[in-house]
């Protein structure tokens, strides 16, 4: 028999009145209710690979939109003299010894002297300075970064000894001097700028005589024989080959007037101040600054046409990301609407709409894109044509996934309850069913981005999509330009390929992280 308590036997003084909403317990629970997206964010953060991939994507995006801001004066600057040059940045070259524009090669004695003599000639602004290669080492205009080794070889037949030099030269300074025809007016502008800035641009002309082996090459400022060997000429006019040493003194072959003064210009035609043309000899490194207002410092080098490769890569990344995000967003909207209607109504509507999707899905993507570029690009532009090509069939995959989610959720109890309470179809679709499919939609959209980037790069690489203009380019176009010359200029292939690979890998890891984070079966699971 159970023991029963007679409440009437307990005095009322033992009871204490309590409010209905009063706190009756001090017990604390560790588990707190969290929202769907908060729960997904917690799980996403625990996926280290996805977090690292996200950081890399952010860095690439920052690179794409910050570089054009800091290199806006490079935009549109194309210089064939500096085409295909490697990374060079004066600050890094002088302080860290990197990004010096250097390329290591093997040179004959006459070629080595020719390039090293550029630095000597650049220091001789008036034709009266006598300097050696040793004197100019480490100066601003000396292209020789490092002499690595000198090898001797003896010809068995002639018994002559020849030298072979392994050296690293700054390929930007290696351009040296050039001849140029300018108007008398332009000559005066250069002269005025030179006097105001102190930057030497005009250099003495070279005499066209027997000691000038190539009258078209402005770098042979010193006396050389027909075999391009540096010589010293005696009083009888006989030349003797100079053997290389870092203390060798090269004899200049400058054009001089009757007073022995060097000449900086030569009349080349025309009759007035505005029409007269002068032949002048310019130090191209300084002339480049005169033209553009900055020295040729390119952190990633220049591309095959002479544009700043870093700026071109930034533009290519911008184009790839904008196209990929736009395609993903538009396909998400179209696919979500199409798939929602299919999945919710089912029956005849679903049957007809699925057959339409089947027909479109079997149309080859490459043929669609080629036809769009052939017949539509001329009217709306290659980028708009590219977007339309992607959108024409790209929404089908998204529609299939949304349709599957609607078939899964439309028979759930909360949907039947909404029907019972009188909710119309559109409210049920967008208010009750669609939010449950949002995880799948977001994940699918994120995973669409690397696919679009890959296919866009492939289309531009193959030349189906023409995106190589002075203001627009793509990573695929940069890779196509480098495909035939990358063994000689590896930076043209390495940098764009590296960025494209990182984008592909990181977006896939990012998408995988989103897929796991939005997986309903893992909701509330503590990894």
CATH architecture name of the largest domain: Orthogonal Bundle
SSE string, helices as H and strands as E? HHHEHHEEEHEEEEEHHHHHHHHHH
First and last CA, distance: 51 Å
The counted number of beta strands is 9
**Mean pLDDT score:** 87
| Annotation field: number of helices | 16
**Structural class by SSE content:** alpha+beta
Low-confidence segments, given as residue ranges, are none
Give the CA-based shape. Answer: elongated
Count of discrete domains: 2
What CATH calls the topology of the largest domain is MetI-like fold
Biggest sheet architecture: 4 strands, antiparallel
What's the gyration radius in Å? Answer: 37 Å
Return the CATH class of the largest domain. Mainly Alpha
- Spell out the CATH superfamily of the largest domain: MetI-like
Strand content: 5-15%
| Helix content, binned percent | 40-55%
Structure overview:
49% of the residues lie in helices and 10% in strands. With 527 residues, the protein is of the alpha+beta class. The protein has 2 domains: 231 residues, Orthogonal Bundle (MetI-like fold), CATH 1.10.3720; 205 residues, no CATH class. Strands 4, 5, 8 and 9 form a 4-stranded antiparallel sheet that branches. A hairpin with a 5-residue loop joins β6 and β7. α8 runs parallel beside α12, α8 runs antiparallel to α14 and α12 runs antiparallel to α14. The protein is elongated. The relative contact order is 0.12. The model has no long low-confidence stretch (mean pLDDT 87).
């Amino acid at each position: 028999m159970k023991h029963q308590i007679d409440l009437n036997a307990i005095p009322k003084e033992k009871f204490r009145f309590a409010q209905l909403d009063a706190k009756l317990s001090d017990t604390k629970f560790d588990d707190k209710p969290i929202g769907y997206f908060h729960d997904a964010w917690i799980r996403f953060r625990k996926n280290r690979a996805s977090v690292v991939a996200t950081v890399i994507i952010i860095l690439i995006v920052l690179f794409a939109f910050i570089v054009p801001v800091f290199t806006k004066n490079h935009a549109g600057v194309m210089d064939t003299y500096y085409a295909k040059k490697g990374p060079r940045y004066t600050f890094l070259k002088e302080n860290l010894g990197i990004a010096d524009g250097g390329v290591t090669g093997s040179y004959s004695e006459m070629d080595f002297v020719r390039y090293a003599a550029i630095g000597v000639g650049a220091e001789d602004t008036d034709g009266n300075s006598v300097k050696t290669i040793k004197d100019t080492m480490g100066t601003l205009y000396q292209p020789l970064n490092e002499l690595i080794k000198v090898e001797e070889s003896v010809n068995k037949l002639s018994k002559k000894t020849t030298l072979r030099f392994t050296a690293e030269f700054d390929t930007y300074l290696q351009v040296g001097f050039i001849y140029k025809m300018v108007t008398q007016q332009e000559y005066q502008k250069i002269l005025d700028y030179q006097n105001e800035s102190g930057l030497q641009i005009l250099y003495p002309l070279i005499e066209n005589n027997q000691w000038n082996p190539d009258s078209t090459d402005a770098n042979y400022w010193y006396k050389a024989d027909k075999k391009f060997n540096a010589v010293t000429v005696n009083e009888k006019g006989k030349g003797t080959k100079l053997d290389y040493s870092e203390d060798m003194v090269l004899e200049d072959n400058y054009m001089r007037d009757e007073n022995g003064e060097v000449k900086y210009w030569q009349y080349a035609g025309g009759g007035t101040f505005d029409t007269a043309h002068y032949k002048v000899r310019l130090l191209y490194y300084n002339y480049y600054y005169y033209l553009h207002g900055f020295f040729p410092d390119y952190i990633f080098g220049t591309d095959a046409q002479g544009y700043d490769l870093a700026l071109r890569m930034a533009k290519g990344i911008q184009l790839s990301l904008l196209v990929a995000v736009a395609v993903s967003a538009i396909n998400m909207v179209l696919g979500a609407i199409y798939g929602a209607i299919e999945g919710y109504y089912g029956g005849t509507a679903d049957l007809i709409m699925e057959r339409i999707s089947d027909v479109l899905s079997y149309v080859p993507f490459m043929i669609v894109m080629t036809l769009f570029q052939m017949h539509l690009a001329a009217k709306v532009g290659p980028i708009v044509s590219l977007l339309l090509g992607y959108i024409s069939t790209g929404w089908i995959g998204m529609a299939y996934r949304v349709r599957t989610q609607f078939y899964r959720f439309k028979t759930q109890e909360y949907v039947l309850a909404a029907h019972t309470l009188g909710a119309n179809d559109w409210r049920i679709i967008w208010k009750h069913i669609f939010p449950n499919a949002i995880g799948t939609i977001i994940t699918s959209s994120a995973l669409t981005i690397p696919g679009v980037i890959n296919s866009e790069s492939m289309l531009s690489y193959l030349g189906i999509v023409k995106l190589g203009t002075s203001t627009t380019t793509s990573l695929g176009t940069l890779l196509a330009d480098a495909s035939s010359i990358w063994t000689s200029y590896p930076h043209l292939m390495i940098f764009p390929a590296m960025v494209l690979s990182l984008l592909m890998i990181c977006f896939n890891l990012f998408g995988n992280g989103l897929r796991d984070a939005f997986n309903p079966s893992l909701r509330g699971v503590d990894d």
